[in-house]
Design goal:
This protein has helices spanning 11-20, 28-31, 51-59, 70-76, 115-125, 140-144, 158-162, 182-187, 189-205; strands at residues 4-8, 38-40, 45-49, 65-69, 81-85, 91-98, 109-112, 130-133, 149-154, 165-174, 176-180. The protein is an alpha/beta fold. It binds 1-O-pyrophosphono-5-O-phosphono-alpha-D-ribofuranose.
Length: 206
């Protein structure tokens, strides 16, 4: 059986493909995948899932390897081998508010998809806040009055800018990472180690 690799849908997809094209593998089925969620190439079985689900599939051994943002790994702490950084998916974690916003005197409300990271950020500051969990488009929360600020990833800064928000603090940097299932890596060592090595070489050359 070919190695199974879980890829993160969305923003990392295109960037992964650009990276993968620098390695010595067949890429054409990935380039022309359309809306398919599973893609077979000569060397690999790929499937696409949301970042947190990539970690679940790898943790449970359905995928041998996974490509996922470091932000997702910090937030969810899955029990996987966190192998090494990949040269794409670079982003920062930021606290942002509406431009010119004055923090309230009462307890702040902070919206985020990353509730654990947000909690840890304010714990370190020694400040107690109300954290509101959202699943996406968190930039809406301060605009619509659900929260005073947001904690979210910033890549180009375009989403914040186009929605009238500004960064108040940037506190973590991430990139995409290669992860592996712990027991599959032992059982399928001969098959997986050369793949991991080729990804590593590609990452070092980028
Ligand atoms: C992420 C993040 C921001 C945006 C930042 O959202 O939540 O909204 O990207 O990128 P930028 O700084 O380059 O504009 P994503 O597109 O992954 O979707 P989401 O809103 O569903 O989380």
């Amino acid at each position: 059986m070919k190695p199974v690799i879980a890829l993160t849908k969305g923003r990392l997809e295109k960037q992964f493909l650009n990276f993968f094209e620098t390695l010595d593998y067949e890429t054409e089925p990935l380039v022309n995948k359309g809306r398919k969620l599973q893609v077979e190439t000569e060397q690999f079985s790929f499937f696409f899932a949301k970042g947190p689900d990539v970690t679940t599939y790898v943790e449970n051994g359905i995928a041998d390897l996974g490509v996922v943002g470091g932000d997702i790994l910090l937030e969810h702490e899955p029990d996987v081998f966190n192998l090494f950084p990949l040269p794409f998916g670079k982003c920062r974690m930021a606290l942002a508010t509406k431009a010119g916003y004055e923090w309230p005197d009462h307890k702040k409300r902070i919206a985020s998809t990353f509730t654990n990271i947000t909690n840890e950020y304010y714990r370190e500051k020694g400040e107690s806040v109300d954290i509101i969990k959202l699943e996406g488009s968190v930039e809406l929360a301060p605009i619509l009055g659900l929260a005073d600020g947001i904690v979210d990833i910033v890549e180009t800064g375009t989403t914040l800018k186009e929605n009238g928000l500004v960064v108040q603090d940037e506190f973590l940097s991430f990139s995409a990472r290669l992860i592996a299932n712990r027991s599959n890596l032992k059982i399928k060592r001969n098959q997986l180690v050369p793949v991991i090595e080729s990804f590593k070489k590609g990452a070092n050359q980028a």
